[in-house]
Amino acid sequence: MPPIAPQEFWLLVPEIVLAAFGMALLVAGSIGRGIGGRMAAAASLVGLAAAAVLVVWTQGQATMGAPILAGMFVLDGFALYWKVLFLVATALTVFLSVRFIEDGGYRAGEYYSLLLLATTGMMLMVSGFNLVSIWISLELMALSSYILVGYFKFERRSNEASLKYFILGALSSGIMLYGISLLYGATHTLALPALAGSLSVAVLQGDLLSTVGWILLAVGLFFKVSAAPFHVWTPDVYVGAPTPVTGYLAVASKAAAFAILVRIFYQGLAPLVIDWQIVVAAVATLSMIWGNIAALTQRNVKRMLAYSSIAHAGYILMGVLAASETGLWALMFYLLAYTFFTLGAFGTVILLERREYAGETLDDYAGLARRAPFLAACMLIFLLALTGIPPTGGFFGKVYLFAAAIEAGWTWVAVIGVLTSAISLYYYMAVVVQMYFKDSEEITPIPMRAPGLIAAIGFCAVVTVILGLLPGIFVNLAKSSILPLAWNLL
Amino acid sequence: MESYLPIFIFLLVVMAFLVVVLVTARLLRHGGGRTLREPYECGNEPITLAHDYRFSIRYYLIAVLFVIFDVETIFLFPWAVMFDELALFGFIEMMIFLTILMVGYVYIWRRGALNWA
């Protein structure tokens, strides 16, 4: 192993700062009477902003695409893109959380501390260039989110969700680690570039060990992105978790898992592209069909959004399936748009919720257009984007993903994608029907307290529309961030 | 393939050892009574079932905390042995590691996980 220069640690300074903020919040939250919710939220926003500035600064310091710290991590445009996305998503989650945590009556310091630590894990993960550093960062993210899911510790549903997530998550991490160990046994390396080199030799020899290894590794990753048939945890966890945490899991956690899935598949497993394309096609198809059909019968909006999240994992997997540059930037663009419209939708659910869980069913949305016109309009935009209807970012995201799949010759998967999208129109529009065409007995306007939350929802709605009107800017952003990369596949 | 011969011999020795020990124990043991058939045999006759008394969840908590600081010690030993070679860099790294652990320690302490009341 080459010696590590201590100066190289400076390149990880954004993650170090974020972790320091997380730990400081943990200490501040436990000394004396703890710190107030607003104070903790403000401190975490400062930490996120500092990390964002440092992320951009360190990118200027490093040689782009050169592995650092003995090949454990890499700083490149791809990592930069995701890191900024995670920081924005986490900041929005903070805005979504403030009132929710206050109303729940739980200590705030730990909550924000865990949120920052999970984000640290995500940022390290997308920079990971070695299966070990990737796995450890993944665990940092996962362990923090298990606790966040169970944060309402006096609520049975929250406890149940946390336990289910923990047990299944630990199992999938174990499966993934086993796959990694088999890959190491077959190739004698864990560094992604070297892995590709060794695998191309192993493939020629028809090696069984590496085949089992990469399949187990892929199973772990599919679990994290909640793709069928590894999705069973999703509905219960999404419903039971405190809603801001659900939004965070649905957006940041999923984006991080997709980022690393692409990095591993496109770089480490590049020689196996013919093999993993078949698996990805099957998983994508199953996710789209199962997610969309199961969502049809849901009366709980959080549960419906959970199945919708499974379906979206299927759509996004099409970008992986394409195994091309188009697929890669289509995936990056879609997850950018998905971040905003999904967090916005969960933000709306939060605003309607009273006393932790009430106000989640479809009937609670009846007459919303009259009771809270602004909120209903924002929710309409998010639902249009989730379905993939212009003028929203969801439309172009889907167009690019389907185009990438067709371009790569996977037309039948794209056809299933279009057909299942049509099915999804039914359950998304069921909410719209409730909001705009049903009357409720209650006609009192919904109190619009929590200005931060409303601002965050409005911001998400505006960005969703901008992404639909001017997608070119963001597509170029995604394209330019993958250009200087030495992807093994592209 | 000769290189695997010692492993094969080792396997045989292990199995022979097991057979010898079990057979000897069978021949030598005295008749036994109720106490011998208890799952956690310790020579005394149990007076109640284990489920009759609840024991504190803190045992679990303390066990988890013990494991954490146990692992800390495992990291400290090789560091102490290699202290001269790792020099200042190793020292700073270990101090960062200990600081992180200390944050966790302050947290569990202040939140009352160590109160045995």
Describe this structure in words.
The complex is a heterodimer of chains A (490) and B (117). Chain A has 490 residues and is an all-alpha fold. Chain A has one domain (6-482). Chain A contains 19 helices and 2 strands. A two-stranded antiparallel sheet of chain A has the order 1-2. In chain A, a hairpin with a 4-residue loop joins strand 1 and strand 2 (73-74). The longest helix of chain A has 32 residues, at 156-187. The mean pLDDT of chain A is 86. Chain B is an all-alpha fold and 117 residues long. Chain B has a single domain (2-110), classed as Methane Monooxygenase Hydroxylase, Chain G, domain 1 (Up-down Bundle), CATH 1.20.58. Chain B starts with a helix and ends in a 7-residue tail after the last helix. Chains A and B meet through helix 1 of A and helix 3 of B.
- Low confidence ranges of chain B: none
Mind summarizing the main beta sheet of chain B? none
How does the helix and strand content of chain A classify structurally?
mainly alpha
Give the averaged pLDDT of chain A, no decimals: 86
Q: Tell me what portion of residues of chain B adopts beta-strand conformation.
A: under 5%
Q: Number of helical runs of chain A?
A: 19
From the alpha carbons, calculate the radius of gyration of chain A and give it in angstroms. Answer: 22 Å
Q: So what's the overall shape of chain A?
A: globular
Query: Biggest protein-protein interface?
Result: A-B, 6 and 8 residues
What is the count of structural domains of chain B? 1
**Secondary-structure content class of chain B:** mainly alpha
Name of the CATH class of chain B:
Mainly Alpha
Alpha plus pi helix count of chain B: 3
Low-confidence runs of chain A: none
CA-to-CA gap between the ends of chain B? 62 Å
Strand content of chain A: under 5%
Quaternary organization: heterodimer
Largest sheet of chain A: 2 strands, antiparallel
Helix content of chain B: 55-70%
